[in-house]
Amino acid sequence: MHKMFRYFSILVVCLLMLTGMGCRKPAQQNSKLYLYNWTYYTPDALVAQFEKETGIDVVIDNFASNEEMFAKIMAGGNEGYDLIFPSSDYTAIMIKLGLLTELDHTMIPNLKYLSPLFREKADYDPAFRYSVPYFMGSSGIAVNTQRAPAGYERTWDIFSDIRMAGSMSMLDDMREVMGAALKHLGYSGNSIDRDQLQQAADLINTKWKPNLVKFDSESFGKAFSRGEFVVVHAYPENVFAEISKEKWSSIDFFIPPEGGMMYIDNMVIPKGSRNLEAAHAFINFIHEPKNYAVFLDTFSLPPTTNTGAAAFMKTEQPFFSIEDLSHSDNISDLGSDLELYNQLWQVIRYH
């Protein structure tokens, strides 16, 4: 959940081939469904319910980054899975490379519950020919209100506040940090304009970076909970997971009003899947509102993608609302233009 474990940095030393999966039967009693999802992103309760309702055994492998997932798929791992959960930029890449099976919408009637905001943001597959959303979320800013000075700015420019110098961190993620600066300057978080990108880099280098302890995408949640940071650029689920609920009221988490960088995690069926019926059934099962509510309640997330889930949710105060995402940009695949970011990020990160 590029989310809950998007921040893990994986060095892929070699490409691994999946072996031993064997042939599988069409969806029927005692058949199997092989999922490849982000770590800790598939609630056990939903898996058990799906198995009970369908008689299909669900087998789950996990990945910690899109890069890890993609390396395995490119090494032939698509032959081992029926359903994969890539983020939108990698979904776009997989569509371009012809790695995905076109979906049969007649088998997914719960597509009717997809939210209007999601439909607006899903420009990588606007007709949902190859993908259905699993969750749409965003990074933001978490502030320890018991330690922060009064009157701090609830925008990305909080990182310019010298009163909190030496007690703040931002994600060690090029697209997230550059995107935050671009959005604060009023530009698209996916801009490929050289002048706009340079302005964003200058803002980070001269105003934000001097006040940061570090760029951190691995331990920010634990560090924040221990009081090492007062302000962190963060995924909310990682921050709140480290803090007892009775202390949540002392945390101000917000997505700045100028917007930030969103993520959309999708469900896709790779070419080579031998259990198409079961894969479609799982997608439809997830988007049954009462089931989707279980998923959201498990992680205290808002109903950003499914319009029917709110009526069944038990979580009273999710970490953010769907309205908070209205000005955010989904991280897009930039192709060769990504090198423009890489060049500036090297200066930001290592000079």
UniProtKB/TrEMBL annotation:
GO terms for biological process: polyamine transport. The keyword Signal applies. InterPro entries: SBP, Sperm_putr-bd. Spermidine binds at residues 173-176. One of its GO terms (molecular function) is polyamine binding. Gene3D superfamilies: Periplasmic binding protein-like II. The keyword Signal applies. It comes from Sphaerochaeta globosa (strain ATCC BAA-1886 / DSM 22777 / Buddy) (Spirochaeta sp. (strain Buddy)). One of its GO terms (cellular component) is periplasmic space. It is found in: Periplasm. Keywords: Periplasm, Signal, Transport. This is Extracellular solute-binding protein family 1. PANTHER family: SPERMIDINE/PUTRESCINE-BINDING PERIPLASMIC PROTEIN (PTHR30222), SPERMIDINE_PUTRESCINE-BINDING PERIPLASMIC PROTEIN (PTHR30222:SF17). The lineage of its organism: Bacteria, Pseudomonadati, Spirochaetota, Spirochaetia, Spirochaetales.
